[in-house]
Amino acid sequence: MVKLRVHNLAVSLDGFATGEGQALETPFGHAGGRLMEWFLPTQAFVEMSGHEDEALGAGTTGVDNAFAAATGRGIGAEIMGRRKFGPQQGPWEDESWRGWWGEEPPFHSPVVVLTHHERPELEVGETTFLFRSLPPVEALELATELAGGLDVRLGGGATVVRDFLAADLVDHLHIVVVPIVLGRGVRVWDGLEGLEERFDVEVTASPSGVVHYVFSRSGSRPGA
Amino acid sequence: MVKLRVHNLAVSLDGFATGEGQALETPFGHAGGRLMEWFLPTQAFVEMSGHEDEALGAGTTGVDNAFAAATGRGIGAEIMGRRKFGPQQGPWEDESWRGWWGEEPPFHSPVVVLTHHERPELEVGETTFLFRSLPPVEALELATELAGGLDVRLGGGATVVRDFLAADLVDHLHIVVVPIVLGRGVRVWDGLEGLEERFDVEVTASPSGVVHYVFSRSGSRPGA
Fold first, then answer.
1. How far is B71 from B155, CA to CA, in rounded Å?
2. Were A12 and a residue from A182, B73, B101, B183 both cysteine, which residue would form a disulfide, CB within 3.0 to 4.6 Å?
3. Is B213 within 8 Å of B174 (Cβ atoms)?
4. Which residues form a coiled coil (chains A, B) (predicted)?
5. Interface subset of A 82-111, CB within 8 angstroms of B
């Protein structure tokens, strides 16, 4: 069965996936880079970003990398919120924005961008962005069709993940708890009381200080 | 130096140390026993509660027990909130209440109970309860005096721990994150943004599914 998977969703100890004050230069708000510090040194990220770093070399190969490397495996399409695609809100005033990722985005597959403001699809390198106004269940149907038998990744941000969890559409949820207290921002867990009842949970602490939670759906998806 | 230590403070993934609807029969509110499930099978708890259980035997001796067993080591006094002592609020209408713990409470040392309603001290077995209306720094001074050179334990509940953390008085904080989403109750992390900057943090995942966080003060206590 095709699965809907979330990978590398980093949250603070107090449950914030991003800080306050998100903007073009501060995509995580006052959290800065702290939520993704565990990810940047991994071999998977170094390879994805396409250049070796003098300080990082070829990247780490421990447990953080093991999880990071699973991100793209067997994925045929992604669903993301509009804010992951770019900083604009409301009607598209600047259609020259082609995402954060330059001329070869790391997706190499169709990406469904959820937005109330539809626009023509956009090809960047091997990635096609489709801008659609769809409720979670229909977005997943479309992405599943585009994925050609492979899994669909739910790319975030936090509110999009929360919406799909609330609709009980997520099969695999990889959450990374970073040992910092952010105090304010976008909460991941709101409205998800009892979430654990629908999943098997496996927990792994990393020497980097983060904790990897893997929630795997215990039964099959309702209606699937 | 005498330390102020918190042990076994269990919180849900979304940061609640107790659920909604606390009462005499439901001290953790709608959380029920779920936050302390990891603790009950440990040898330390089995010994503390004074009777072996047929199902549990002498108790587990793994990582959960290693942490549970540190609770009483080198402790000379405890500070607790009034709600940990008993369910009454406001003026003491029933002074016959002698705590939850029967005739031999597990403290075996002086216990400072923080309350706006002072009353004469109470001896139960080897434990003396002192009922004092004191701000955190003075409560710690009193407890330190009573502890005779040993450490002081901050016994909870969550709001009391939060107050002492906000006043920067805690030296050792052992938090146990339980993989459940409670959705409502008393939040531990509120008002503690940046807490991690004052501590070294060590993280250990247990096969039981909980994660043990140990925050150790990185420098010395201000004013100490």
1. 10
2. A182
3. yes
4. none
5. none
Q: List the pLDDT tens digit at each of the 224 positions of chain A.
A: 899 999 999 999 999 999 998 887 888 889 999 999 999 999 999 988 876 666 768 899 999 999 999 999 999 999 999 989 988 889 998 888 999 889 999 999 999 999 999 999 999 999 999 999 999 999 999 999 999 999 999 998 999 999 999 999 999 999 999 999 999 999 999 999 999 999 999 999 999 999 999 999 998 777 65
Judge: A184–B193 Cβ closer than 8 Å, yes or no: yes
Query: Which strand (E) or helix (H) includes residue B85?
Result: helix B82-85
Chain B touched by A177 (CB under 8 Å): yes
CB neighbours of B3 closer than 8 A, spacing ≥ 6? B151, B152, B171, B172
Q: CA A165, CA A9: separation in Å to the nearest integer? A: 13
Give the strand pairing for B199-205 and B211-217. antiparallel
Pairwise CB contact (< 8 Å): B209 & A201: yes
Instruction: Tell me which fold the domain A4-75+155-217 belongs to.
Output: Dihydrofolate Reductase, subunit A (3.40.430)
Q: Does domain B4-85+106-217 have CATH number 3.40.50.970?
A: no
Residues B129-164, buried b or exposed e (16+ Cβ, 10 A)?
bbbbebebeebbebbbebbeebbbbbbbbbebbbbb
Residue A32 near chain B (CB below 8 Å): no
Compute the half-sphere exposure of residue B26: CA atoms within 13 Å on the CB side of its CA: 12
CB-based contact, B37 to chain A, within 8 Å: no
- Report the distance separating Cα B119 and Cα B105, nearest Å: 19
**Which residue type, as a one-letter code, is found at position A137?**
V
What percent of chain B stands above pLDDT 90? 79
Rg of chain B, C-alpha, whole Å? 17
Burial code (b: 16+ CB inside 10 Å, e: under 16) for B3-20 equals bbbbbbbbbbbbbbbbbe
Q: Please give the structure tokens belonging to residue B218.
A: 């990185």
pLDDT > 90? residue B58: no
Q: Please tell me the predicted confidence (pLDDT) of residue B114.
A: 98
Give the A:B interface size as CB pairs under 8 Å: 82
The per-residue pLDDT of chain B, averaged, comes to 93
Mutation target to probe the B interface, by most B beta carbons within 10 A, among A203, A213, A215 is: A203
Q: Do A209 and B189 touch (CB under 8 A)?
A: no
Nearest Cα to Cα of residue A16 among B59, B83, B193: B193
The SS3 of residue B215 is strand
